[in-house]
Sequence to fold (480 residues):
Amino acid sequence: MAKPEAGTAARILGGQTEEQLLNSFFVLYKTCRMVDENNATFVNQFENFRINFDMVAKKHQQVTIKIVASHYFVNDTMVRFNDQGLSGAAGVIAEWRKLGLGGIRVAGDASADEIRSFFRFITSIRPDNDNLESLAERLRTHGLTNVELLSMKAVDTDRSAISEEARQRFRVMARKTFFRAMNVVEEVMVSTDQGRDINVAKTKRVVHSLIDQLTRDESSLIELTAIRNFDNYTYAHSTNVAVYSLTLGIRIGLDRTRLSQLGFAALFHDIGKVKLPTDLVKKPDAFDENDWLQMQRHPLLGAKTILRNLKFDTHTARAARAAFEHHINNDLTGYPMLHYKRREPGLFSKIISIVDTFDALTSGRVYLKKNLAPDVVFKKMRYQMTVKFDPFLMQLFNDIIGTYPAGTLVLLTSNEIALVLTNNEDKPACPIVKIVGNTEGILEEPIWADLASPEHNDRRVVRQIDPDRYSLNVSDFVLS
Ligand SMILES: [Fe+2]
Ligand SMILES: [Fe+2]
Fold:
């Protein structure tokens, strides 16, 4: 599909009102299932929802809440909304998907009674026993004429609403956060090397920015992890490990404090390398046995460095543990070798171990001096799964990143070259892409295409392409 025209309402990113409306909608949805409508909690939450509803309805005379390609919309506005949080939205949407329900539309002049009845109605839905037609029929018999159920098919035609412009905004913010994180890693490593104090507060702040960015739009940050040609890859590596770790942490439902500790630990996981000779860390050739022995000291050196240089608190303790354990495998092999007190690595260490290996193998800049395509890496890692990695976390990470991770270049059946923008978790083989070139050469105006949508049936991914082989530079596309 060609790039959508600019200027329509769908191009605008939603603000706080829309975000609050979504939050109050899903919170009320959850509450309505647990208590009756005289309950004080319900009354309060209903009031809260009504205020948000009225604010949106005043502008648009109706309120539509819909999900298009995993993005939340209020009317035609895409809203940054974390559905993995306490609102329980992700669970509701999973039920809606089962029913083929893509959204709901409520007329702006619907009365409080009608809205209350609607909540009672919609929360009584059981996805296994109902379908969309029977629900629409029941809605009519209930006399709820001010409410409409929108099928997934109907809202799917709105996929173009997720415009390049809206994505662009996310991407600009993501880029700022990513490079800020990389600068912080550099500062931390240089300070450690020169025996200067580490700016802990700044490090924590950047972790929080990463969390904020990832809860709104994870693909824009994941896309940046595909840039492999930084001058100093060590800094990019630690940033990538933090992005991936936090993505996984958000999906398993860690709260903000734990996420902050996880991101902090991820940024520090290889700090021990600062204490190794630079020639070794930057050695362009494959490691010999002696190099390996040297290299295997970095987890212990890292833990010691963290404990010596930082004020002791929960962040520091967890970071030291993760630095120490991130090369210890699920079966307790790996390094450092544990001779006594053989205990299982902690959750953070398990997460970091998976994403660290993925980044190291796909980059080809750490240990193995040859980069492998992400799908090859996942195959390799899944093969070693039970021995080396936690199988549940490994599978989840694979599902999130997808067959063709954001930021990879792929060849399409139409002989076009495209940059993967977002993984379609329901259809991992059909990501959302930006077509950047064809047999004629690089396109001046890239074409945005959701390969899961029927109009792109003739565009399938043939394979991932190695940018080096075609003398292409991923960063030119990702950062353009
Ligand atoms: Fe490491
Ligand atoms: Fe690492």
Notes: The longest helix spans residues 164-193. DSSP finds 20 helices and ten strands in the chain. The longest strand covers residues 441-450. The chain has three domains: 9-161, 164-401, 409-478.
